[in-house]
Amino acid sequence: SPDLADKFVHVVPRLAQIYAKLQLTSDAIQAYDEVATRYLRLGRKQEAIEIYQQMVALDPNNPLTHVRLAEALCHLEEIDAGLNAFYDAADLLFKLGRDEDVMRVVERALHFKQDPKIARIGAEVHLKRGTRADGLQALTKLQICFKADPKDLVVFGLLAQAFTLLEQTDKAIEVYKEMALLAREKGEAQLFTQLVDHLMQLAPEDDQIRALSVVAHG
What we know:
By secondary structure, the chain is mostly helical.
């Protein structure tokens, strides 16, 4: 019965530890998952989180363990820690090329907080997929990033990609101009020159770009 199982809730972590020592990772994860679920049902949320943390430690390359931990943390109002766990899951999935799953994790995480790090990985997936709808979605997510840090060169680069994807070349050029000025301000001479050369290819008649080219090449 569930009541009896709840009384023996402490036995399962011991089993999980034994499984882990025997390197029966999937069995250990399943055992941990069962006990964490019971703890949550009993309202013992902190203990459930500790179990999820052990799951992540046992199987750090499994995105699902990070997602379980993230959900538990967010429901305990530990949003920032939860978002870090969501990001770890999204990053693992991104490296595995599981774009659909990345987007599921990103949308779930953004439901709790408009976090720039999460939004950026989502924007990168949209740009990789490359449809017009993805371009619009990327812009929405990049606005979150831009708001958090209006001087992030990577975000500028992604914004320019999004406008290019949407065939809004004029806007992409304006973003590249701002990016070039920012690169110069930050002392990134090589990037500044690369951006100016790219702009010269895009709009060779633009007076501001010609002026920047003179600065870049003396």
